[in-house]
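User: Hello! I'm new to structural biology and keep hearing that structure can be predicted from sequence alone. Could you demonstrate with UPF0102 protein EDM57_16115? Please show me the input and the output so I can see what each looks like.

Assistant: Of course. The first part below is the input, the amino acid sequence of UPF0102 protein EDM57_16115. The second part is the output, the predicted structure written as tokens.
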Amino acid sequence: MSNRRRLLGQRGEQLAKHYLLQKGYQIIGQNVRTRQGEIDLIAQDGKTLVFVEVRTRSSLACGTAAESVTWRKKQKLRELAVAYLQALPRQVPAFRFDVVAIFQPGSTRGEHIEPTIEHFVGAF
């Protein structure tokens, strides 16, 4: 992964984290690793545990950020969530999967362009 792409992803995760905090979510973890991979964000929304996939795009040439969450990625996130839940000492009453899609267009003249953030609650 290129450095530019990695930085865009990190920026997107920070934007998503702050967005969710403003909506009243409690962030439990960021970049949570399991044997199977990594979960971008884990949050608490009331009594519901939320596994959040963050997708960030700087161009629409390859589709939107939300469109990049494929069937295969959804399946992977389900596996990661199961591994995470099995490692908890207590049972979770409810959980769901959200997607935060961010479009942060690149600027050719150095001006700041505000990102567009879409939050898909219960995305799958």
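User: So the tokens describe the shape?

Assistant: Right, they're a compact way of writing down the 3D structure. Reading them back into a model, for example: The chain has a mean pLDDT of 92.
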